[in-house]
Amino acid sequence: MTTLLILLAAAVASAPMSQPATRAEVAAQRAAVEQRFAREKAECEQRFAVSPCLEDLRKRRQDALAPLTRHEHELAAEERRARAAAQKQRVTERELAAAQDEGQRRERLLVAPPPLPPSTPASHATRARSPEEAERRRRQAADKAEADAAKRRERAQEREQRMQQRIAEHEARQKNRSKPPAAPLPLPGASAASAAR
After folding, report:
1. Do 8 and 90 share a structural domain?
2. What pLDDT was estimated at residue 104?
3. Checking CA distances to 1, which of 16, 76, 128, 151 falls within 20 to 30 Å?
């Protein structure tokens, strides 16, 4: 009986399957193959020589699933090509719409150009400076730069004084510590010399 089942399974596995059209059909065929081989595996496990039977079963299962796997890959590739074509179509449509919008915008600009900004009155126009005015402004800029530099130096001195004060306070706290500082560690060579004695 089991020999008949094995021969029948081999004939079914070697028979050309009709190519499924969808992933659902491929999944259904895969489930049928898996179910059939699960039954055969249970039969193999009832035998005395389990390993050779299971090895033969694995090979036949792999041979039966190979066309389904290939077809799944083909379906996936076909789906990817369809998605890529749809994306390309969407991009083309967007570019066409953008080109049409740009053309319409240009037509509107040609028909009615945008209003120009109001011209500045002559009173607001930049006037030519006299040499005295230029010298006065240069002196003001130099005085301002000198004042800013003096402020920066003053702030730097204040920061330096605060830093010195903090250092002095820290040193005073260190001197007032109740615990004496730890003894230094011995030199590496000294410990080796004392061990050798």
Report:
1. yes
2. 83
3. 16
